[in-house]
Amino acid sequence: MKILVLGSGGREHALVWKLSQCPGVEQVYCAPGNGGIAREVPCYPANPADSARVAQLASELNTDLIFVGPEAPLVAGLVDELTRQDYLVAGPTRQAARLEGSKIFAKHFMQRHKIPTADFVTCEDLAAARANIARWGGPVAIKADGLAAGKGVVVAADRAEAERALESILSGKLVGEAGKKIVLEQRLIGEEVSFLVLTDGARALPLLPTQDHKQVFDDDRGPNTGGMGAYSDDGMVSASLHRRIMEEIISPTIDGLRADGMVYRGILYCGLMITADGPKVIEYNVRFGDPETQALLVRLDTNLAELASEVARGQLPASPLAWKPGASVCVVACSAGYPGEYPAGRVIRGIEEAEASGAKIFHAGTAAKDGHLVTAGGRVLGITASGPDLASATRAAYEAASKIHFDGIHYRRDIARKGLLRTQPL
Ligand code: AMP
Question: How far does the centroid of ligand 1 lie from the alpha carbon of residue 282, in Å?
Answer without folding.
Answer: 6
